[in-house]
Prior knowledge:
The structure holds 2 protein chains of 2 kinds.
Chain A: E1 25-30, H1 40-45, E2 49-53, E3 111-115, H2 123-131, E4 135-143, E5 150-159, H3 171-182, E6 186-187, E7 190-191, E8 193-196, H4 201-223, H5 238-243, H6 258-270, E9 292-296, H7 306-313, E10 321-324, E11 328-332, H8 337-350, E12 354-355, E13 358-359, E14 363-365, H9 372-400, H10 402-423, H11 427-460, H12 466-472, H13 502-510, H14 555-558, H15 566-589, H16 592-604, H17 607-611, H18 614-618, H19 630-649, H20 672-692, H21 694-701, H22 715-745, H23 801-807, H24 816-830, H25 855-858, H26 865-871, H27 873-892, H28 897-910, H29 919-939, E15 958-962, E16 968-972, E17 981-985, E18 987-991, H30 992-1005, E19 1012-1014, E20 1019-1027, E21 1034-1035, E22 1041-1048, E23 1051-1058, E24 1069-1070
Parallel strand pairs in A: 21-24
Antiparallel strand pairs in A: 1-2, 3-5, 3-8, 4-5, 6-7, 9-11, 9-14, 10-11, 12-13, 15-16, 17-23, 18-20, 19-20, 22-23
Helix pairs in contact in A: 19-20, 19-22, 20-22, 21-22, 26-27, 27-28
Chain B: E1 43-50, E2 56-61, E3 67-72, E4 76-81, E5 87-92, E6 98-103, E7 109-114, E8 118-123, E9 135-136, E10 142-147, E11 153-158, E12 163-167, E13 172-177, E14 184-189, E15 195-200, E16 204-209, E17 215-220, E18 227-232, E19 238-243, E20 247-252, E21 257-263, E22 275-279, E23 282-288, E24 294-298, E25 304-308, E26 315-321, E27 324-329, E28 333-339, E29 353-354, E30 361-362, H1 370-382
Amino acid sequence: MQSSATPPSVVKRLPARDPNRTTQGMRCIHDPSTDKTLSSAEKKSMKPKYKAFGSKDDAPPPDPRLSKGSWLDYINVDFHLPKARLRQTPYNLKPYSYDAATSIGPGPPTQIVVSGFNPLITFSRVATIFASYGDIAESSNKMHPDTGSYLGFATFRFRDAKQPRRPAMSAVDAAKKAVRTMNGRKIEGNHVKVDFDRDGKKSREMLEAIIKKDRDEMARAMATPPMPVGPRSHADSIPPSRAQSESVAGALLPSDNGPPLSDATSWSLSTKPKPFIPSTPSITSTLRGEPYIFVPDSSVPVMATTVPHMKKRLKAYVIDDILTDRMGYYIIFPNTSRGREDACKCFQSANGSAFFTYSMAMKLHNATLSISSQSLNHPRSGDVDKRPVGDVRYRDDHQYRPREERRQLEDSILEEEKKQRAQNFDPVIEAIEVVRREMMEHLIRHIRTKVAVPALSTFLDPANHVAKRRKLNIEDPSGPLKPIISIEDHDVSPVSTPNSRADPIERRTARLNVTALPRIRKVKGHGAVQRNYGFTDPFARKRPSVVRNAFRSLHHRLQPPDSDDEASEGEGEREVRDSIARDTEEPESRPRSRMSTDEDGFEDGFGDEDSMTEASFLVNDGAIKSKKRKLDLQVEAAIKRQKKSDEELFGVTIDTLEHEFPSPTEDITLPDATQTNIKEPEMVELLVPIEKATKGKKKTAAPKSKKKTKKQLFEERESLKKQQQDAYVEEALEQAQQVDTSRSETPLHKLSIIEEPEELLPKDDRFSDKVVAAMPIPPNFKLALETIPDLQFESKDQPDISKLKRRTAPSEVGDPRLWIWKRNRIRELNATKETTINSSLIIDGYYVPNPTGSARTEGVKKILNSEKSKYLPHHLKVQKAREERQQRAAKKDTRDAVASAAEAAKLAAEKLLAKGNSRANRANNRRFVADLNDQKKTLGQDSDVLRFNQLKKRKKPVKFARSAIHNWGLYAMENINKDDMIIEYVGEQVRQQISEIRENRYLKSGIGSSYLFRIDDNTVIDATKKGGIARFINHSCMPNCTAKIIKVEGSKRIVIYALRDIAQNEELTYDYKFEREIGSLDRIPCLCGTTACKGFLN
Amino acid sequence: MAGWGLWIRTVARGRETPSTILHDGQEHGESTPPVRQPVRPHYVPRLLLAGHQKPISQARISPDGRWIASSSADATIRIWEASTGRHMDTLVGHIAGVSALAWSPDSRTLASGSDDKAIRLWDRVTGRPTKSKPLLGHHSYVYCLAFSPKGNILASGSYDEAVFLWDVRAGRLMRSLPAHSDPVSGIDFCQDGTLVVSCSTDGLTRIWDTSTGQCLRTLVHEDNPPITSVCFAPNGRYVLAFSMDSCLRLWDYVSGTVKKTYSGHKNEGFSIGGCFGSVDGEPFIAAPSEDGDIVLWDVGNKEVVQRIKGHTGVCFWVDVCDDIMVSAGQDGKIRVYKHQNPNAPKEINDVAVVNEALGDLMVTDPPLKNEDIKKENNKLYQAGLIWLN
């Protein structure tokens, strides 16, 4: 039980029982009553014996298996894996690696914080050091918030490396690696600490620690120098105020203490540059009579930036202006009763309310308030005590940390706004506001662009005033026409290419007046100018661009802004850009239902459609101006009119706020004469384009049902116009329709039977007027067999059989209907694309119809090789190769075909290498043979086992496969060099006479091939039934092998050698050298397919 | 009667039984040792199915025994109901005569190989091809077809000396075996589908491994007669080769030796094929003959146990399934025979009436008058099923 030898290493174990404890209890070790060895008398007399336990550590000994290297290790539980060892218990489980799908918790950190490096070195050096561990997603060199100086610690966040060149490195691993390696190392002479920093907490803590340290220092520095001019009555309250230093509760300061305080503040402020310059020394003088609310500087520090925020805050009230003084803010209300009321309301509501971190202590002036005095007094009395609370602090903050304060201010402003919004949050109201705003914008813009501008421009169009000019003898303006804002610029002539989406742009640019292009100036403050090289303002934030509503005067739209004022220019540009953006966005912003049709229109993609879609309408709006030809205008007008008529025809009217301005020509309040004039040529032109491109028109005719997005202008105008135009347009449409239908009919006719010409058509050269016979049979008329079943045969339709028999040779068809059905069925199942109705079905390849119908019913016949070559694939291949060679030879024509072919083969063979015949192999073989011979000698006899065909060692790897020459052939599996021995022709060695007998027998039994190979006059090798695979080598008139007879170990052997270099997978052939039996009837044809083929084997 | 479609009453010439047939249960006089009884098939002509216009190359019974399919040189295949002889369908679609036919093991698909180098798979129920495109790939006439017992592989032998193995479901060629140097005349699968045997007019019978395409065995007889058909024995151990020296040879392909040779029929010029059958559990071999007869042998003792005359002209194919035997003839007719237990009390003489539930065959001694035949023919012509001269 106990191990004889102490185990090599006993694991130190805790004692099972507390060694300090005393005896736990007693245990009976001998009970006489149960002891069988005692006699009954003894039993009665003896007493049980007890023993105390617990004092000794009598826990069981440690399990020697648990100790490493125990001699019990040899115990194997797994007999199949001898190396298995009993494991230590408990296991040391590897902790689960983090798996995003299953693990709880945020996962291992990917961010590290590096601290301790010299802040003055360039950060990029540090960054590169850490970039070597993995891809850095972001790095942040922490800066002091107030001074902007680097603090000497930074965070790096890694990301999963995705480069293909390196193995993927996950972010987690990169972070681990970085921490492991860099912690404690030196960067430029300073020891750095690298640590994980999940979520950036550590760096934040560090930052805060530093800030706190700084603040404490400052506080201490501040505390020592006493306030030079403190509040007279509150010097003693300053210490307690410091205790509440961090509170930013409202400090309501009355105004009367304001000035002296502000003096103090201003005095202390004088050490620092003033944040702003007060506009007037004293505003109160300027304000006379106007109600105003004064918010002293002490309650809210006076800064220019807070003014707009304050305005916003108080926007519910109609404020005239907010002026600032170094004393405070003056919120001025208009000098009306309403203004006064507003002022009171404002005062009542906003007084004392929180304004970011401050609270506004207001004082109402020049406005009577019912409880004004009280409200005034109350805060005042209350304030006095509270005054010092935040006062000193604010001043301090303000003095020493303007930037931080500003940031806090910004934050608080946002907070405020958020709170305000949250309070007023009613989605319905907000939505209404939004919609209302947008609609107003749209409306105004549209009025401007679609109504006013075109009207003006067309009115100003010099063309319209020709008459007047003539009258006044003013010469025509020579310059380019005033650029007209075209609303709909689209492809004018329908003849244009279908891809008019590109075309209009081209057209526009082609005819564009360069000066009319909008000047796109760089907006200062955005883009490249913004980037300050060298200094990045970490706290700078992009101000949201100011969105202007359409409350500007017209001139801004008609002319590019030419003021040099940066602000207005920027705004103008922005506005222009916005408007451009808005315009081009407009198609999308339109109700989608309309747009869907437009998209359909896009799909068709034909000229007219495209041009009339919304996008092309509006791209021009306001931004791109183009010239328009008169013709374009007119045609466009025509097309638009057609559109409108379409709409009217189908009763599509859209009542929306959005208006569409019809063609400029229509709104001109010119005398009717000109209008009709314009109309006339338009009609002509309308016809012309219609006729010219029927296809295009077809398309427009077809989607008549599609609703194009149309915006109607004032209804009365529209209807007027329509009435005028209806007649014209109807006519035009009808004509278009007619043209279309008639045009479409003609292609449908398959037969060349010409129907009666249409009466309705106008005279058109395309149709002939002459009358042609109704049913002339064209010369290539053929009976359509497929139509026969549909013909209703009557008795009189039956042909006269006798006549037919005389005319044509009858053939047995049987029931014609069945015959036709069968034929159709076969055709339908077998027809490919090429078979036409009447062509017969062909069977691919070589086909000889069997006279009895099927091959099996034919019977078995011998098929000649020549016949086989016609359809057997491998035969065909050889033939084709031969033909190609012949063609090539014929092309060359200079040299002998045979010689050239031989040369070509040689060239091909020369390129090849051969392996397997190295000196080493030969040496090995020789050694093997010598060894065998030695063994033979020792054995003393020529036993079968040791009989070894030496020639086998020299055999080349060859394989047999189907051959084109004949049935089976031998192919080289690797390249063979010239004059290499390939294989031995092995077979039965028979005498000459036997071979003759056999030959006859084989011939009789039908074995066409001869496998008898003559060694010498008396012996023949017969490989017909027993032999090596060399028997598969075929004959060729241009062989690549030759047979030689060599003597090996005393006997003659037939060996095949290579005549030239043989390529891999080339068939081995040699010249059989049969006797030429010229006159014999039964000559064996040679299928070698070479150019020098003699045609027969024998 | 019209509803029975195409059968024509015929005269039974009385079945000629070889002297050894003991159809009445009589034993031979000799004392026979208690060896197994020689098989006693007793096939009686039952139906004559006409319809094809040209010689019929093959007639096959479906594996479930209910249908007979016949392929003919007129490029059609007809399906008949085996029990009644009713003509079910004519499958039209080949451009040239059909030489080969094979049923799939589930009797739902029929494969036909034709001279137009195409193999078509037909659905028996609808009568239309299962795929619009046939299996193309052979370079010459398709001569023989066989389905594997699982129905997934179709083996086809063709005049272009190759054996093609097709994947039926995919409809494409799986493997092409360069099997022979002459047209492949017969092909068969063994019962588990692992071996394919193919025979050719070059005299070779080759056994292939289906999965690898390796040739496992070549069985050649000394004289090298062309082999016209081949089939596996039901126990899968032997291969029966029909050769054109009017002999049938039973090969043990493992050893490569001929175990039995059967003769008694004529096979000199045409490619004929037969099969194994069994009666009362005893196997027999049925082979057609070029003189129009069908000859049945006992497998064991190589004796002819029945000889049935019937066809005029060459009989190309015989197929046996359970107790139905069908034969295809050059005369364009299909004869259906049914095996009758000789112990049945029916006596068949020259004049006999066989009463059965369906398919009563009226046998009349004086043959039908010409007019009656003409009337029958007219009726059939109206139905569009036969053609009149």
